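SEQUENCE WITH STRUCTURE:
===
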Amino acid sequence: MRLSRRTLLGGAATVPLWSGLASAQVSDYPSRDIRTICPFGPGTGADIIVRYYAQKISVLCGKPVVTENRAGAQGLVATEAVARAKPDGYTIAITPASSTLAAAAHLFKKLPFDPIKDFTPVATISTLSFALMADPKKGFKTIHDLTNFLKEKNGDRFYASSANTGTVAAELYKKSIGFDIKRVNYKSGPDAINDMLSGHIDFWFTDASFAVGQVASGKLTCLGITGPKRTSAMPDVPTMVEMNVPVDLTAWWGVLVPAGTPQPVVDKLAGWVKQVSSTQETKEFLLKYANDPVPGDGALLTEWLKRDIERWGDYVKMAEIEVQ
């Protein structure tokens, strides 16, 4: 088919017109409400963090940032909604991406999204260690006390499991000491605590956010944390690596948008997140929930995501976690 000179010129003229419209849309961003889809229900620890960042970003960008809760399937429902949203910066994810993206890649037989290809990482927020908890009445002062007790019992003991990351931490610990302590699955933390205080369970890994309150109340004792360095929420508690137990495992938070979001929009979002994360108020807020602030860019978030997607493949096999 032959095209006339007029048609060719008309098409050429259209390119800068559309380019100009796209540039205008980016420069005006945001011109309306932004929504962030929270992967867990209202009032949860995740919801509190999402709403905090949403409110702070709203102040900086001059438009409401509305939190929409879409709980279900361990965060899968909300994460898919973000992946399928229009890539224009008006739908964002403020999420514990170590679980909703990295771990999810191996916890489900088939994901409705690609954790790498369907998202553009914007910024990191924080890391969250898991804590090794025990009954203070048993008199354990260190991880080695617990280990010696378990060895004396020749592995005929039990640990509580209530979350995938905690289960992986426990299995890594088991592997390091060489004893097959039996796993008991619980639907909730309080149930695990009740059995621990009744003497049926010897240890339990839970997230540091929950652990801080239990330690403060004297209900449980914390023998170690799973992060690469001590958490500011419990500075006197050593890391497991410090105690020569090779368990280095953290959950982490980040901000992402659908793949294809214009880079100038991504840069604007990253700038707002950086401003929020850099304030003393935010650092104190995160520490209140035992999150260690780690403000970083999209490149760092990509690094974490790729690293943990690879790790979780091995973790799921090692811990024999049932794939859904």
Notes: Residues 1-21 have pLDDT under 50 and may be disordered. The beta strands are 34-38, 65-69, 91-95, 119-134, 158-161, 182-185, 203-207, 221-225, 250-258, 292-297. The two ends are 53 Å apart (CA to CA). The chain has two domains: 10-128+250-319, 129-225.
